[in-house]
Amino acid sequence: MTRSRLGDLIATGLIDGLDPRDRMLLERRARIKSTGDEPFPLDPRGWWYAVPGAMYEGLFEALGLHDRFPVTLDEGADVEDLPFRGDAVPTFVTPELDGWRLIFGNLADLVGLGWDEWMGAVERLSALCGEAQMFYEDPAGGADIWVVAQKGLIRRRYAAQSNPEWIGDPLPWEELGVDDADPNAGTARVAHACGRLSVDPGEIGATTRVRGHGWLALSRPGIGHENLNALVQL
Q: Which is more confident, 214 or 182?
């Protein structure tokens, strides 16, 4: 498949009309390019999810993502800067990084900004992927949230803004204080917890194990990938 052929497919939104052979060629392209990718720190802009790499397929249904298109880590990293049509915003699913796939990009549009929407998303992800984690940081607003869910239920949650709140039993790696009045004192914030739970996006680098390619997916079906030519870097 030539550069112009791939560019035409993306520009005209015909990705969903590809036959099985062309789909295989696109995935082969992404796999080949991914083998040459040097892993580098990612910036999910304060909000991301993580699911186990071996069980990630369920995330597309859980989040209502459609029209996925294979991409490399480099091609998907700046997902929030990509052009899009209407309300069909793109979201990036990373290659497998140390056994986990991260999901980020335009999550306010995809998931919503309500507490119940946030918790519902991580519960659905865990129901379909076995386990899921959510991380949210807003230094300006003082918000710091991390959530661990398994099989559709939240197992542990830390949420801090003015006053920290916890649910669930502490996890084995948590280094808690000895204050009898506050058994959760000392619980880690997102900056530390993400690395203990799965992958710290800011610490991805040469020692990170990368497997497979990533995906760009859209929040509405049947839109295709028109105007996403920035992804074509053959």
A: 214
